Amino acid sequence: MSHTAHIPSHRKPRQRASKSALRAGVAGGFLSTIAVAGAAGPAQAESVTQTIEMPTITDGLSTAVAASAQATQQVALDLETQASEDAAAEKAAKAAKKAHAEAVRKAEAKKKAEAAAKAEAEAQERAERASRTSERTTLSASSGSSDSGSSASSPSSSSNSSNVSGSAASIVAFAKAQVGDAYVSGGTGPNAWDCSGLVQAAYRTAGIDLPRVSQSQSTAGTQVSLDNLQPGDILYWGGAGSAYHVAIYVGGGEFVGAQNSSTGTVQRSMDYDRPTGAVRVL
Fold it and tell me: 45, 81, 260, 268 — which has fewest CB within 10 A?
């Protein structure tokens, strides 16, 4: 047994319990106070921060910027297209103006050339007439008075195209059919002739091939007098073998010939331009 077993206890259980209860109460109140303070305190001390959510404009702005860029690009493209069209129109206008000026220049040049050619042909015809007149005068003086007397008779009294037949008729008919055609140097038909080209084509209708040039045609047959002509005879101007012009006697004192660019192919009286001589091929 303990040596203290009989020592009375100085503890006061009830008082101890009471203090314990008090302490418990105090502690509980303190804890409650802390709890209340903990609940109330932060609510008073906490700063209120409110976040306002702003509307997002990024998508709309991007769309507007893209649309503006596209519009700007389209305007630039339209301006470029318009500039190209304006440049093309200006270039076409310049080309048209240049072409018009060139056409006018060519027309004027052609007109001047035609006028010069006509004047030259007329001058050539006058020179040929003067030359033929001089040659006829020389031939007349050398042939004597008998020849000059016989020349007074006209071949029209003994020859008339109305009673021509055979090859001569076809030659005369062909020659007359070409009256009104143009004269073109080197022309052999069908609508433009030079003098020897017409004679050659007329004789071809009778199956006769003549030389191409007047110099050779003037010696292609038998020389005949101008007062003893027959339809179809070849008339020539200049010397035999050196003739510069030929035609076809068609009777009635007339001939058909491709004269020059001014007159073309004509039927004229021998008095209009009397030939130097004649040759008979038929």
Answer: 45
Please report the pLDDT score of residue 143 as a whole number: 40
Strand partners, 166: none
On whether the 156-280 domain is CATH 3.90.1720.10, my answer is: yes
| pLDDT tens digit sequence for 14-69 | 555 455 544 555 455 545 544 444 554 444 445 555 555 655 555 567 777 778 88
Tell me what pLDDT residue 63 has: 78
The DSSP element (H or E) to which 102 belongs, if any, is: helix 58-143
Residues 204-259: pLDDT tens digits? 999 999 999 999 999 999 999 999 999 999 999 999 999 999 999 999 999 999 99
Count Cβ atoms within 10 A of the Cβ of residue 92 and give its class: 0-12 exposed, 13-18 middle, 19 or more buried. exposed
Got the DSSP string for 16-30? HHHHHHHHHHHHHHH
Measured CA distances, 193 to 190, 219, 252, 266 (Å) = 8, 21, 23, 11
Residues 169 and 160: their CA atoms lie apart, in Å, by 11
Q: Is the pLDDT of residue 130 over 70?
A: no
Residue ranges per domain, the chain? Answer: 83-141, 156-280
Q: Do 261 and 183 form a contact (C-beta atoms < 8 A)? A: yes
How many other C-beta atoms are found inside a 10 Å radius of the C-beta of residue 270? Answer: 19
Q: Compute the distance between CA of residue 176 and CA of residue 256 in angstroms, rounded to an integer.
A: 7
Q: Which of 262, 180, 280, 165 is nearest to 223 (CA)?
A: 280
